[in-house]
Design a protein that fits this description.
The protein is α+β, with helices and mostly antiparallel strands and 420 residues long. The protein is 69% helix and 7% strand.
């Protein structure tokens, strides 16, 4: 208990919690805190021990401390029912069988008078067992998951058929014996499982679709009878084969001992068993073919239902008027796009003067480009480097500031003559 309740070793705290519940009007917060403490502890203990149902005597036993049991458990059970954390076990099963599908909704459907009646019955101990709803739902989910892992005896369209042995194996995952049986009752009450007995054997139909008819029908009965007949014939074939093998071994033994007449009689028996086994195997093959045809018909029906559902959906979405609407929509769309382009062109500002300036500048650039192309180049491809260097110096030579050389020499000659 220490692992579930950290306050269990606190004597002062536990003495207060073990005391009878005082009037709620005196201290509502303290009253609610005490009720919640015990309800939470009951749920924790049930989860840890996988117990779906409790009663007053069990609670007094498991919560005994220092030889004393809590004096407030009757009030806790009553408040647990009112809050929806607990439910009288029979009433909980009845709520699952009703259209409300939940304990809380079922109680609301009955009205406040039913809640008061349940509370008064609790005080009189007319309801002996109480379902811990959260723990029960957890155990139920655990069992359902285990059932989904088992190999199906027969797989149908929206359900599977399981044997009683398979159900018991799945329920075996719950440790508490009483809870195992109660979880089975919960699944049956909620019609998650449907029980059916035929040829002294019990089967269960596990529904996988909420919209499926939750009952055994003639198809289910036919599939089960075919399956059991095939199993019976297979067992019969195995027994006959064992007898045939035994007689064959006996023939070999008698032949070794030289007892030819006895060996011949055993051989006749072996041949008879062989013929019987051949007939049984033919019967098995025929039944298996029929079984496969039924399963194939079921698959075809499912496929047809799927097509019909798709067809109905398309009919609601597509109709002949949509073609005309589509053409009108596209025409209007094209007109609006053209109109939008015209509006955009109208809103564009054109600067003609600027265009003339740009044209003149382009003509000037074109002339300069032509002059650059016509200017001869003094570069000699592949020539002597010294010559090329001289030519480059000539290209760079500036003659604008030089005086004419001939005029200067003539002037000097005249000056000499006058001097003489």
């Amino acid at each position: 208990m220490d692992a579930l309740c950290a306050e269990w070793e606190d004597d002062q705290r536990m003495n207060a919690l073990f005391a009878p519940v005082r009037s709620k009007q005196v201290n509502p917060e303290s009253w609610q805190s005490k009720i919640n403490f015990w309800l939470n502890l009951i749920e924790k203990w049930c989860d840890a021990n996988e117990v779906a149902m409790v009663d007053l005597s069990l609670l007094k036993k498991i919560f005994t401390r220092n030889g004393k049991s809590p004096h407030c458990l009757e009030d806790v059970l009553q408040e647990g029912v009112k809050s929806g954390d607990l439910a009288p076990s029979d009433a909980f099963l009845q709520s699952l069988s009703s259209a409300h599908q939940t304990w809380g909704a079922w109680m609301v459907g009955l009205g406040t008078g039913a809640i008061k009646k349940v509370g008064s019955n609790l005080l009189g101990y007319s309801a002996s067992n109480f379902t811990v709803i959260k723990t029960t739902n957890k155990l139920r989910a655990k069992v359902e998951k285990e059932l989904s892992l088992h190999e199906n005896y027969i797989s149908c369209r929206h359900s599977v058929i399981l044997t009683e042995e398979q159900i018991n194996a799945a329920l075996g995952i719950v440790n508490h014996d009483g809870s195992r049986n109660y979880i089975l009752q919960v699944l049956l009450a909620d019609k998650k499982l449907i029980q059916f007995t035929t040829d002294n054997r019990t089967f269960y139909k596990l529904t996988t679709d909420k919209n499926t008819k939750k009952e055994f029908d003639e198809i289910d009965r036919g599939l089960i009878r075919l399956k059991t007949s095939i199993e019976h014939l297979e067992l019969r074939s195995k027994q006959i084969e064992e007898r045939h093998n035994k007689e064959t071994s006996e023939v070999k033994r008698l032949m070794k001992e030289g007892k030819r007449t006895s060996a011949k009689a055993c051989l006749r028996k072996a041949k008879r068993f062989e013929a019987q086994n051949s007939k049984v195997l033919e019967q098995v093959l025929g039944l298996e073919t029929l079984f496969d045809e039924l399963m194939s018909a079921e698959s075809n029906k499912m496929l047809l239902d799927t097509y019909q559902t798709g067809l109905q959906t398309l009919k609601t979405m597509v109709n002949p008027d949509m073609l005309e609407k589509a053409d009108n929509t596209m025409s209007e769309l094209v007109e609006l796009i053209d109109l939008n382009n015209e509006i955009a062109d109208g809103l564009t500002i054109k600067d003609d003067s600027r265009d003339e300036e740009l044209d003149k500048e382009l003509e000037m650039l074109a002339k300069e480009s032509d002059e650059n192309i016509k200017t001869p180049s003094t570069k000699i491809e592949g020539g002597d480097p010294l010559i090329q260097n001289a030519l480059n110096q000539l290209d760079d030579l500036n003659l604008d500031d030089l005086d004419p050389l001939i005029a200067t020499q003539a002037t000097d000659a005249k000056n000499k003559v006058h001097a003489s």
